[in-house]
Design brief:
binds adenosine-5'-triphosphate; single chain; four-stranded antiparallel beta sheet; alpha/beta; about 300 residues; about 30% strand; 10 helices; Rossmann fold; 2 domains
């Protein structure tokens, strides 16, 4: 079942079109990464999913229900985590979550039980300090606990890792992976390595549409380049290797950067052995030899160029 369906969304600000016939769906329990350059329209799309912005055209369904602008009924299915969540700093994490439970209509006992499940999950169990002394990463983890309090069907995270250091980012990404057992995650970011770490499917927003949409593994396969990278001892050896490789018929292109040579070739599994023969015949020492995996960054640059 699709938790979210976005169909033919158009959004203009004045005469300026930001989203143009945007369509995608997010299946239950997946982690969907919405990526795009700054200003691509990620936040605009998320605001429309929560009914805070009116689409110029098209429709959005959350858990099968139509999202209506200005009507937050479908937000009972949604938890929202912004890039920098705001809290009452004088409260402890537990007090804050108790207050959130009360505001959202949960019974006291129910909230208390849920907090006992969530605080260990986000690594804040037993921390009695006030929130104002929390690190950014701790605040973001508390934000995740807050969004999960009401057991949302869809957790929307807008640039949730962008303001964090690498350790804080890893903690949040690990947490979102675990949270996907309980909910479905839609995660917007411009940090492509974060998407590669946790998302199973992605949408690349470019010029108002999804220029790419699908399973990350399938997208990477489609854009797979047949290439190997060989690191030699020094630049002189890499130059020597370059000259010998130019003569081989199965090589499509070859380029050198310092002591490393990157080769695009047909059938790298088979023809790679012939490169090894050259290295051996010419006695060129190898520091490293690897089959190149396509990175999301390369795919991204290929698509939006
Ligand atoms: N209320 C508004 N009025 C006019 N233009 C707007 C409004 N909100 C957003 N825009 C424009 O729409 C475009 C998309 O903005 P949006 O914030 O959705 O992009 P984004 O992909 O989330 O980018 P970022 O990562 O920089 O936040 C931008 O050109 C922005 O200036």
């Amino acid at each position: 079942m699709n938790i979210l369906e976005v169909r033919h969304i158009q959004k203009n600000f004045g005469k300026h079109p930001v989203l143009n016939d945007l369509s995608f769906s997010v299946p239950e329990h997946s982690i969907f990464g919405l990526i795009g350059k700054n200003g691509a329209g990620k936040t605009t799309a998320m605001k429309m999913i929560m009914g805070f912005l009116k689409p110029t055209g098209g429709e959005i369904r959350v858990c099968g229900e139509n999202v209506a602008y200005g009507n937050t009924a479908t937000n009972r299915f949604i938890g929202y985590l912004p890039d920098v969540p705001e809290f009452y700093g004088y409260m402890s994490a537990k007090e804050y979550l108790m207050m959130c439970g009360r505001i959202t209509g949960l019974k006291r006992l129910q909230t208390s039980k849920r907090i006992q499940e969530l605080l260990p999950l986000v690594g804040l169990d037993g921390i009695k300090r006030r929130i104002h002394s929390f690190s950014r990463g701790m605040k973001q983890r508390l934000g995740i606990a807050q969004t999960l309090l009401n057991k949302p069907k869809l957790l929307i995270c807008d640039e949730a890792t962008s303001a964090l250091d690498p350790k804080g980012r890893k903690e949040i990404l690990d947490l979102l992976s675990v949270a996907a057992d309980q909910t479905t995650v839609m995660f917007s970011t411009h940090i492509l390595s974060d998407v590669e770490r946790i998302c199973d499917s992605i949408g690349l927003l470019h010029e108002g549409k999804l220029a790419l949409h699908g399973k990350l593994s399938e997208i990477k396969n489609t854009y797979r380049k047949e290439a190997v990278r060989i690191e030699t001892l020094n630049e002189a050896q890499a130059r020597r290797l370059l000259e010998h490789l130019h003569a081989l018929s199965f090589i499509q292109s070859v380029e050198r950067s310092q002591n490393a040579v990157t080769v695009q070739l047909h059938d790298p599994q088979k023809n790679g052995l012939k490169i090894i023969d050259v290295l051996s015949d010419e006695q060129i020492p190898i520091m490293n030899y690897e089959l190149l995996e396509p990175s999301l960054e390369n795919v991204f640059l290929d698509v939006i160029k």
